[in-house]
Fold:
Amino acid sequence: MSIFPLDHRPDSSQISEFFQEVRCAAMEFVFPPACMMCRSEMPHRIFRTAGCTLCDDCLGQLDSGHGNACRRCGAPVGPFTIATDHCILCHRENYAFDGVIRMGLYRDSLRVACLMAKNPSGSLMSRTLADLLVDTQYELFSERAFHAVVPVPEHWAKRLIRPHYAAETMARQISARLKVRLATGILAKARWTPKQAKSPPVQRRQQQKDAFHVVGAGVQGQSILLVDDILTTGATADAAARVLKRAGASRVVVAVVAVSPPRA
Ligand SMILES: [Zn+2]
Ligand SMILES: [Zn+2]
Structure:
């Protein structure tokens, strides 16, 4: 909760924020908050990080055991690997994107959290995961200058029946955290694609071929941060990055919360 210094006259937004904090603190006194994942009781707001809705145990589980990542495809690489611009899994791939920034692997607690974020009521979890992605990978984000944050879009008809869409909510939060313009209107999904979870990689690429199109000329010469929640085979991100590049984007880097672990 912010306390105003005596020599500073607060503006209306600060006063409103102050009363919002007071109201939340009063609500928490009556209804103690619970961790979004394990439902255990959380410490009172003034004893925990502002806005955090996960207990320390769950936060620790989400943020551990992911190891080093290949900067090109996000796959896990050994702790002593120095050249991480490509790895054994991606050196023959012709991805249209220039790199991947990811938090962890799509398994255990992070998988559960990603599934919660996809739920119609998963807006808060989506924002929390986006915050964790920025916090844990801040160095990689700040290495490159981005002109725009673009979510991997969903077909408009699907958007009509969903109150929230994880990639878009995450992109909005990442845009706010990095102070980079959010551009939701420049990439659109041209057609409805089937759910890909059970499709083999080759079929996924076929399904995503020409699935996206760029609206207008707003990406010419721009460095784009393309946001999705999960990267599985890379087919969706590759198809989206390909049309952005074709429309003149100078660079496309993909940011995801999790990548699928390599198949054994
Ligand atoms: Zn918890
Ligand atoms: Zn790789």
In short: The pocket of zinc ion (ligand 1) is lined by residues 35, 37-38, 40, 54-55, 57-58 (CB under 6 Å). The chain has two domains: 12-53, 63-259. Residues 12-53 form one domain.
